[in-house]
From TrEMBL, chain A:
Native species: Cecembia lonarensis (strain CCUG 58316 / KCTC 22772 / LW9)
Name of the molecule in the record: Putative monovalent cation/H+ antiporter subunit C
Similarity annotation: Belongs to the CPA3 antiporters (TC 2.A.63) subunit C family.
Membrane disposition: Multi-pass membrane protein
Gene Ontology cellular component list: plasma membrane
Tree of life domain: Bacteria
UniProtKB/TrEMBL annotation, chain B:
InterPro entries: CPA3_antiporter_subunitB, MnhB, MrpA_C/MbhD
GO cellular component: plasma membrane
Keywords associated with the record: Cell membrane, Membrane, Transmembrane, Transmembrane helix
Na+/H+ antiporter MnhB subunit-related protein domain ranges (all copies): 197-301
Pfam families cross-referenced by the UniProt entry: MbhD (PF13244), MnhB (PF04039)
Name listed for the protein in its UniProt record: Putative monovalent cation/H+ antiporter subunit B
PANTHER family the record matches: NA(+)/H(+) ANTIPORTER SUBUNIT B (PTHR33932), NA(+)_H(+) ANTIPORTER SUBUNIT B (PTHR33932:SF4)
Residue ranges constituting the MrpA C-terminal/MbhD domain according to the UniProt record: 12-73
Membrane topology category: Multi-pass membrane protein
Subcellular location: Cell membrane
Organism: Cecembia lonarensis (strain CCUG 58316 / KCTC 22772 / LW9)
Length: 102, 317
């Protein structure tokens, strides 16, 4: 099997997604959970663009690129909303985790 | 040589993602997140996606990082409170609630590794389809622009971009709603600022504006376009806000609303006009396509920049 740019980055994307998934489950603080979702998203985007690289003819497939730009902006908007919710929860209750022990 | 650079970048990206999750201090995690975004931007360049690299560095790393940093201050601690609580409880009672039982940790770890293997196998087996490169290239002369990614964003798939501007607007509204709908900070209450900071911001403002305008226009023939320009223009608003000129809060309310919605509104009117004149939704007449795309991009960039500034101004009040 030939190891090239596509193989390396598609492997990286799977690992990034797994790290993000682990972070979403295991991280406690809201901020860290939000960062974990962004890392998960980065894994998906990386996987998508590495396919564009693999299937490139004269230039890389522009459709995944355009969709990933759209995706990044939407992910950031969603994360900003999540941040504002986290800050609201912190302001109202003083909590910064989903603690259900107390 | 290529493999060396790619593997180094990949290892660095994975390491930084790990550090983001495992850094003991929250502030450290946020700073590592900045670095992670920049490494990822380099990875995009290696994959030939320069547009994505600019968007990643500017929006996902820059704008998101600034919001994260600001949230750190809002959680009113530079250290993770969890960490302090952990140390507090450790000194008093034996910790129970903040640590995982080893069986749980083992099960979760094994599950994650299994998931990783499954996803790697799934990625490996995606068939080589050839993609849509050939079609995109064949229609490029009719699209009004020379750069394929801009052609996809604003001509072939203009519908996606239109809705994306809508998503940003909706995110802004949701943030307003979640924040409890309070007024912006009054300009008079702006904190006294460092004169050096203010001067630096004043020097950077025209440079950022010019660079944003360049990216906007250059999107026609190379990497760049509405989103990248919008983030640079949004950065102007954020910097001015940080410097004590709360521009977004002093302009009249109506004006703010118009600024935030003009991109979405014009895009929609354009789409329906094309339908009324017999074309499909977002089917530009090839003769005017270049000009129309430039107008749409400019208005969209203004709208997105205003929305990003508004998100920042509202979150930091």
């Amino acid at each position: 099997m030939k190891i090239g740019t596509y193989e390396i980055y598609s492997l990286t994307s799977a690992i990034l997604f797994a790290i993000g998934l682990g972070g979403v489950f295991l991280a406690k603080h809201f901020l860290r959970k939000i960062i974990a979702t962004i890392i998960m998203g980065a894994g998906v985007f990386l996987c998508f663009v590495s396919f564009a690289k693999r299937d490139a003819l004269t230039f890389a497939d522009p459709i995944p690129h355009a969709l990933v730009i759209t995706g990044i902006v939407v992910a950031v908007t969603a994360a900003a909303f999540a941040l504002s919710l986290a800050r609201r929860i912190h302001k109202l209750t003083g909590e910064d985790t989903f603690g259900n022990e107390k | 040589m290529d493999i060396l650079i790619d593997s180094l970048l990949a290892i660095l990206t994975i390491y930084l993602a790990f550090r983001c999750m495992l850094a003991p201090k929250l502030s450290k995690a946020v700073f590592v997140f900045f670095a992670f975004g920049l490494m990822l931007a380099l990875a995009w360049i290696r994959l030939g996606a320069v547009d994505v690299a600019i968007a990643e560095a500017a929006i996902a790393s820059g704008f998101m990082g600034v919001l994260m940093l600001d949230s750190l201050r809002d959680f009113s601690l530079i250290f993770s409170k969890n960490q302090e609580r952990l140390e507090e409880t450790a000194s008093k009672i034996p910790i129970k609630k903040d640590s995982y039982h080893w069986t749980t940790a083992l099960a979760l770890g094994l599950g994650l590794i299994l998931f990783l293997l499954i996803s790697i196998q799934a990625i490996w087996e995606v068939p080589q389809g050839g993609g849509l490169t050939a079609i995109a290239e064949a229609n490029l002369p009719m699209s009004g622009v020379e750069h394929p990614v801009t052609a996809v964003l604003l001509n072939y798939r203009a519908y996606d971009t239109w809705l994306e501007i809508g998503v940003i607007l909706m995110g802004l509204l949701a943030i307003f709603a979640a924040g409890g709908l309070k007024q912006y900070r009054k300009p008079g209450l702006a904190p006294a600022q460092d004169p050096l900071l203010r001067k630096t911001i004043l020097i950077f403002t025209p440079v950022l504006f010019l660079f944003g305008a360049f990216l906007l226009y250059f999107g026609k023939m190379g990497p760049g376009g509405a989103f990248q320009a919008a983030v640079l223009w949004g950065a102007i608003g954020i910097l001015l806000h940080l410097g004590g000129w709360t521009v977004f809060t002093v302009i009249p309310r109506r004006m703010r609303q118009i600024l935030v919605t003009i991109g979405l509104g014009f895009f929609m009117i354009l789409g329906f006009t094309q339908m009324a004149t017999g074309g499909a939704f977002f089917e530009y007449p090839p003769a005017y396509a270049g000009f129309l795309i430039l107008v749409v991009e400019t208005l969209a960039a203004i709208s997105i920049a205003a929305a990003l500034t508004a998100i920042f101004a509202f979150l930091t009040k």
